[in-house]
Amino acid sequence: MPRNADATRARLLQAATDEFAEHGVAGARVDRIARAAGVNKNLIYVYFGSKEQLFDAVLEAHLTRVHDEVPFTAQDLPGYTARMFDFALAHPEVVRLSSWYALERRQHGPSPTEVAAYRVKLDAIAAGQRSGTPGARFTPSALLSFVFALAGAWTVANPLGVPVDASDPERLAEARRAAAEAVRLLSAATPAADGDAPLGPPPPTSTHQDA
């Protein structure tokens, strides 16, 4: 791709990141994206095909960025959680994009990049469990879900978490420690204590009506 085309595509991706993070796929407007990028809106369709495909390209770019900037080590899930906490706090737009993706695009199936990224991590966790670290009390998919949920729980972009004031370093440090410590406990290799066994299936629901 010529250098000018690369620069145009990069400007479109940056403008689209801001627009999609704020408005989601349905609420985003190609006119605003093109105006912010300083290009004709027809170039969006030339480079990406559609608004939806542009969103997918934006998300793919950020998934690749997370993979490159936040190294994953299955034997140190608490450390990975802390690094993901830092990334999510520094880049709330990525958390917002992930939320919009779950709401508006996931029904179309995960992207190849997403599948590959998760597969590598899940395989690494499974291999680690066979060696004893992390522990095998939970499945690899459960552990990875815990990591991502806890790493992003305190960001302002998470609609379900309690955000931490980014200007309060003590509260930020405490939230970071709490996320990492929770994952350490969940991924511990030691067996559960008596009375703290993993939850079994829920009891059957009674079909009888109360008298």
From TrEMBL:
Domain of life of the source: Bacteria
GO MF annotation, one: DNA binding
GO process terms (BP): regulation of DNA-templated transcription
Residue span(s) of domain HTH tetR-type: 6-66
Residues of the DNA-binding region: 29-48
Keywords: DNA-binding
Region of interest: Disordered: 187-211
Residues forming coiled coils: none
InterPro entries linked to this entry: Homeodomain-like_sf, HTH-type_TetR-like_transc_reg, HTH_TetR, Sco4008_C, Tet_transcr_reg_TetR-rel_C_sf
Pfam families according to UniProt: TetR_C_21 (PF17926), TetR_N (PF00440)
Keyword flag DNA-binding: yes
Protein name as annotated: AcrR family transcriptional regulator
Organism name: Allostreptomyces psammosilenae
Upper taxonomic lineage: Bacteria, Bacillati, Actinomycetota, Actinomycetes, Kitasatosporales
